[in-house]
Design goal:
397 residues; alpha+beta; elongated
């Protein structure tokens, strides 16, 4: 029997027993749809999970700071705006760079309310780099920086301790003996550091605060957690040339704990998604095997007659395998359509079109894998049909 004739005969048989074909295809259809949809759902989950861990643990942030030890003769060269611009311009995979001086504490007072909190000087990129938002008021403006304005943005908890339920905007608080006007309040975050800080413009802090005279740190945000370690290594290598005499005067830190949490979480998620998808496909394959075992029993007489007129065992087995492959291909195609609908729904719900990264090679690979699974499970019915005795097969008519 020619292969083309086998395909034509297979389609005829499947259409003739349409209900049974649909039942056999249902499991594999759901398996393919699950494989595609769960991959996208897993990508969406990892997207939000990674974002949560990144925001909580600053996983994409690299801190570069001056060590300033006494053994190095009073400290290393402080950073300049030119250094930050160089990193922005020359380094790959950089999403943002911000300058900040945060390593000093101070007492902050408003009327009779007094609290000890952090005071941080930041440039205009800080909020964007760390993903912070102003709940009320406004962030610093370029005019604030240019005029060294005595203004401040309060962390949520600092604002609550100083003002309670009162309105903070426009009030003048005294931070480390320097009066500053509150122009904004940050939204509450999961980080106590951000909630318990008074932020002032970097240029203003250097002009007004005794504890802030040198730019001793800056922060680099990588565009993806996968690039954090490589970018940190490049910074460590290049910063050696900034130190006179080749002394190591700078420190480059990454949040290793947060990076490991992201890696472990994504690994568990991928294993779960693939395990569920493979189990679903296996169940679909078992359904095909059972249906084809019943089919072989019902069509024993037909196969016996074909053997009697000269069909070989290989041709009988091939006919069953061709029918299974046609059924698997049809089920997989329907599964792709169903999976695409689920993916479309995910995109509409999340508003993140990049989550639907469904490429043609990926779809082809899923369909090919599903067809192979179906063929593997149909191998037993095919061999059973091929090995049937001619006389017994005809008598079963």
């Amino acid at each position: 029997m020619r292969l083309l004739d086998a395909f034509d005969f297979a389609i005829t048989q499947l259409v003739r027993n349409l209900r049974r074909s649909a039942v056999a295809a249902l499991g594999l259809l759901i398996g393919v749809a699950a494989l595609l949809a769960l991959e996208t759902l897993g990508r969406a989950t990892s997207f939000y999970l990674t974002g949560f861990i990144e925001h909580l643990g600053k996983a994409r942030i690299i801190r570069v700071r001056v060590l300033g030890t006494k053994a190095l003769g009073g400290g290393a060269r402080p950073f300049t705006e030119a250094d930050l611009e160089r990193v922005r311009r020359e380094y790959p995979h950089v999403a943002g760079v911000t300058a900040a001086v945060i390593d000093w504490d101070a007492q902050v007072a408003f009327r009779r309310a007094l609290t000890t909190t952090h005071v941080a000087a930041m440039d205009g990129h800080y909020l964007d780099v760390f993903g912070l938002a102003v709940a009320t008021g406004r962030p610093f403006s370029a005019e604030d920086e240019g005029s060294h304005a005595a203004v401040a943005v309060l962390g949520a908890e600092t604002c609550d301790r100083l003002f309670g339920s009162d309105h903070a905007l426009g009030a003048v608080v005294v931070a480390e003996g320097v009066p500053v006007t509150v122009v904004g309040v940050l939204e509450p975050t999961l980080s106590e550091e951000w909630n318990n800080t008074v932020y002032v413009p970097l240029a203003s802090a250097m002009a007004r605060f005794a504890g802030c005279r040198k730019l001793n740190a800056f922060y680099v945000a990588a565009d993806d957690t996968a690039h954090v370690r490589g970018l940190a290594d490049q910074l460590r290598h290049d910063l050696r040339s900034w130190a006179p005499g080749g002394l190591q005067q700078y420190e480059v830190d990454v949040n290793k704990t947060a990076l490991q949490q992201i890696t472990d979480s994504l690994l568990v998620l991928r294993v779960f998604v693939w395990a569920v998808s493979l189990v679903t496909l296996a169940l679909g394959g078992i359904g095909i095997m059972n249906v084809f075992l019943a089919l072989v029993t019902e069509r024993s007489a037909e196969m016996g007659i074909r053997k009697a007129v000269g069909a070989t065992e290989a041709e009988i087995a091939l006919q069953v395998m061709v029918e299974a492959s046609v059924l698997c291909l049809a089920a997989s195609s329907a599964g792709v359509a169903l999976g695409a609908l689920v993916i479309r729904a995910v995109v509409l719900i999340t508003g993140e079109p990049e989550l639907a990264a469904l490429s043609v090679p990926h779809v082809v690979a899923v369909v090919a894998f599903a067809v192979l699974v179906g063929l593997a499970f149909s191998l037993s019915p095919a061999l059973r049909a091929a090995r049937k005795d001619v006389v017994e097969a005809i008598r079963s008519r």
